[in-house]
Amino acid sequence: MYKAFLIKYAEIAIKGKNRYLFEDALVHNIAYQLKNVEGTFHVRKESGRIYVETEGEYDFDEAVSALQRVFGIVEICPVILTEDEGFDALVETVLKHIEVAYADKHFTFKVETRRARKNYPMTSMELSAALGEKILDAFPETKVDVHHPQVTINIEIRPLINVYSVRIPGPAGMPLGTAGKAMLLLSGGIDSPVAGYMISKRGVTIEATYFHAPPYTSERAKQKVVDLAKKIARYTGPIKLHVVNFTDIQLYIYEKCPHDELTIIMRRYMMKIAEHFAQENKCLGLITGESIGQVASQTMQSLAATNEVCTMPVYRPLIAMDKQDIVTIAEKIDTYETSILPYEDCCTIFVAKHPVTKPNIEYIKKSEQNLAEKIDELVKNAIDTTEVIMVDAE
Ligand code: ATP
Ligand code: MG
pTM of the full predicted structure? Predict the structure, then answer.
């Protein structure tokens, strides 16, 4: 029935001179997402509008779910585009649309007409009223409600006439590729994939770094992280994943530093190494899945101690979120089931029974002096032996 979609985007509209850059990115990203959907699609810009037009048969549901992964889209409206062939032809189109789109006709509606082309023979008001009457005649179960209609039937008189009423929510946000790049510290947990998704939703391209500690963490734990990267790549596009072998650094910290400070010191080295790859790859910031108070290493004092080694901004989109709200997003983006698979991550192996919850940065720095002899060499070695995996959605 529908051969086209009208794509609505809101936030982009306020970007003034840069607007075309955002629209072009959106057009590009829509085409990219539709590449793997059965069918032929053409994406087109027309005076402040984006249309996706289809050619021949296509998979409607798959096309919609692909569009629902394009950041920047606020609404996806299946639309009928028709030549102006007079009022009667328009009535027929509108009635057919309602027939197909609404199985149950017990709804209230209003018709809203807009004329981008003022030479149309009826005013907007006249056309809305006339079409409303025809709809009531054809479907007596329907009722008009001009203030709070359940269904708004939009008629837009443009070069072609647009008829639409179904509005499928998009993910909103900003088009990918319009905001630079950031480095996600991606673990196998629930939080970091959500954090990456959220920052990417603001238009940021992402790379990821994972700290692997073989043989304390298994190949399956690493595969789990790759799988999570694949899941978020459905939204973010391909992800360059840096897999750092962290074992020797962890063992050295374990040998030389107080065990209750282990997690904090480890996390400081993770941030430093992630920042190295971030700089090397022209990222503008780091992203973590931290949230205040969630665990001992995420108290305000611990976050301050971890943050202290970073020179780049660290984006922590989950900082004020409750676990349940994070889980809800993880379920929505389909990372949750993978995240809860029981493979150990490197922090659970070396975690102390009673980690400090209020680390003092000066004490932490003092403990780190115990690492002076070998740590630079170990960090360099970890960087030199890092494996890079290009991860794309399946
Ligand atoms: P997550 O669910 O994201 O693993 P978490 O609640 O388990 O988070 P921590 O283990 O304290 O919390 O990690 C806090 C943040 O540090 C993570 O969200 C992630 O960004 C980063 N991180 C932790 N472990 C690793 C790792 N092995 N590799 C890469 N990043 C990590
Ligand atoms: Mg974790």
Answer: 0.93
